[in-house]
Amino acid sequence: MSADSPHKVGRRIAARRRARRFSQPELASTAAVSLSMLRKIERGDRTPSDSTLEALARVLDVDATQLRTGYVGTERRVHSALPELSAVITGYDIPQGPPTRPPGELADAIRTAVDWRLGAQYGRIAATIPSVLRDAIRYVHVSPAAEHAVAARMLVSAARSADAIAFKYSAHDLSARLIDLMRWAAARSGDPLLTAITDYVRTEQFFAARAHAVGLTALEHAIEAAPVPSDRTAAATRGALHMRAAVIAGRAGNTEAAEEHLADARKLGAQVGREGTYLGTTFGPDSVRIHEVSVAVSLGPEHADRALQVATEWKPPNSLPAERRSGFYIELARAQNWAGLARDAFESLKVARAAAPQHTREHPWAREVAVGLRCHHRADAETLTRFTEWIGAV
Fold it and tell me: What is the DSSP string of 351-393?
């Protein structure tokens, strides 16, 4: 169900069009939508169909959920892609012929998928990743020796983008198989940093199973095996492992380990010096600040004040990937709800949705907080009801 009026959708489309420096005729032509239709949509006289909304979103370089919050085509697209992904990775170790794309074109497609993953644009990933992943697997098998490490690195990136939709949409068995594929490719690359990043992603399995203590042990082994942080990429890789270890230690109730790993991540963030994306993982001082909130929330309600203090002093800049910003506000909302700050918690959820609607919609904590607010706080009940309907919690 959409809480958006046609006028609200039209205003969003018009604002995004102007931000992208398109005229109405240019947008209509590129999206293959009639100019009269586009004008009616922007005025709020017409509600765009799903196909029209998707066509406009593609040209405007946003996900359709950022134009119409009740749009559910993303869920349909992701769920329809999952069986194909499962088929693609079955027998990944068996050569199946050459890829359909040349290496340069394949590399571009994978970079685009990584950008979509960081931006939490899961519907766009689902539309393309099965064929991209198939070609990446084939390229590993046919690449000449001089290109083999590059091919393996590309496969890890492609599988990680596929895993983003599998894990977020609770296809945990498929996610585990994709991580196995990543580990296979990382081993073939001969790059210990790639192995470390794969260990970072593998932690999803421990979160999903709530096997936090063993997950912490696995991450600590990965940290010991990771290369010495002698350059920015190596420091960022080890720092990301420490950030994730701090969070899973918090969920395991191991406060001492959480603090130690967070302190190590903070030092490596200072060494890296600036926020960036390293081997597909965002790391830097800003990411460490976000994980300070994550650790506080992982440790439980008695640590809510610590999360609130971080948010009082600092907010994530818009330059950070959308998924990471959304995660910050979802976890902040949980801390605010624990502290009895119902209105602040709801505002944080709305900021999270604006940053990354698909990520927010699929996040169990966002759903948990929204349901709790609606049940226990009647102020603004109508808006809360619309939000919980959007998030799929009622």
Answer: HHHHH-HHHHHH-HHHHHHHHHHHHH--TTHHHHHHHHHHTT-
